[in-house]
Amino acid sequence: MSETNPKLRAELEGIPTYKPGKPAAAGGPAAYKLSSNENPYPPLPGVLESVTAAAESFNRYPDMACTGLMNELSDRFGVPLSHLATGTGSVGVAQQLIQATAGPGDEVVYAWRSFEAYPIITQISGATSVRVPLTPGDVHDLDAMAAAITDRTRLVFVCNPNNPTGTVVRREELERFLDRVPADCLVVLDEAYREFIRDPEVPDGVELYRERPNVCVLRTFSKAYGLAGLRVGFAIAHEPVAAALRKTAVPFGVSQLAQEAAIASLRAEDELLGRVGSLVCERTRVSDALRAQGWTVPESQANFVWLRLGERTVDFAAACEQAGVVVRPFAGEGVRVTIGEAEANDIFLKVTEAFHKEL
Ligand SMILES: *Cc1c(COP(=O)(O)O)cnc(C)c1O
Question: Which residue positions does N6-(pyridoxal phosphate)lysine occur at (predicted)?
Fold first, then answer.
């Protein structure tokens, strides 16, 4: 066999691997998965039926233009079809946005710690990551982010609420930031957890984008809508950006099953709002209980909470697993714990109680 390997792009060296949330191992002690911010509920009413019907024709390629879903989204958000683009989850769309805007020599600015896909998709494009530390309260430091923008910056991510801290940026500071960003630099408002926000001061990105051609809003069906396994997300942006997304899309990336499931989910709005409401109640219950135990937790507007555990992070995650819940540790920093079923949340709170007593 030849000693020579195919030449691969140098940028691929050292790309961090995406660490998926650990599943709850069959037969193991952990019965609940609180590690990927998934929705604990089964599919919304009508979704399974739509998917099953679509499954009868998966010998055919899906509708590449996602016509039905695009029409539904256009009505729902009051945006023209030309301002919409769908993709294989909003991570897929985020990757397309970077491919469309940044290559070697260009910079992509984002907060850190934030969503772990950002460094990966930036490096794949050959662009350079510029990470701006969160404030001591674990919130985006928008002034520092604005100051980090140079004439090489092509894209800035604002993750609102932020994964993994659950913290938000509010209207006034976000608008001030957007006013400072040069018009030729794209700002991506990643709103994967939008449905869980209850703070009225957090602006809806879809309102901000209307007057700002350099703002793109990312949404997903993976979290509140409970379709993580089907891979469908979308962007709302002005025409040149949305058109670039259609150019960079993998042909037929969004399956017909995903398209039909997304449409049926949008039509089950009442049920969706009820479920999201219950999860938000659980978020309040869990956050209050943690504070009563003595923990300092940032105010979460998402479907997870963040516990800064530092050096004890890995031990804490192991204790959770032993007790029956899998959480998402970021070694040396903290754990992100999804709000799940009440029983799962109770198990988590038992572990935090025992851990806090040992502090
Ligand atoms: C989960 C998540 C997404 C969405 O992922 P999909 O690819 O749509 O499943 C995007 N951004 C953030 C910050 C997330 O946490």
Answer: 223
Q: Is the CB of 163 under 6 A from ligand 1?
A: yes
Residues 248, 272 share a domain: no
Q: What is the distance between the alpha carbons of residues 229 and 234, in angstroms, rounded to a whole number?
A: 15
* 194 cis-preceded (ω within 30 degrees of 0): no
Beta pairing, strands 334-338 & 304-308:
antiparallel
Q: Is 162 in the pocket of ligand 1 (CB under 6 A)?
A: no
In a domain, 13, yes or no: no
pLDDT by residue (tens digit) across 115-140? Answer: 999 999 999 999 999 999 999 999 99
Residue ranges with strand state E in 231-355: 233-236, 304-308, 325-326, 328-330, 334-338
Cα 228 to middle of ligand 1, angstroms:
9
Quote the domain boundaries for residue 325.
21-43+268-358
Beta carbon of 114 within 6 Å of any ligand 1 atom: no
In a domain, 2, yes or no: no
Token code pair at residue 280 = 């938000």
End position of a domain, from candidates 267, 289, 315: 267
The domain boundary, picked from 228, 252, 267, lies at 267
Distance, in Å, from the CA atom of 113 to the CA atom of 110, rounded to the nearest integer, reads 9
- Residue that is written with structure tokens 């979704």 in the block: 47
Instruction: Evaluate the omega torsion of the peptide bond into residue 161 and state whether it is cis, within 30 degrees of 0.
Output: yes
The pLDDT tens digits of the residues spanning 76-116 come to 999 999 999 999 999 999 999 999 999 999 999 999 999 99
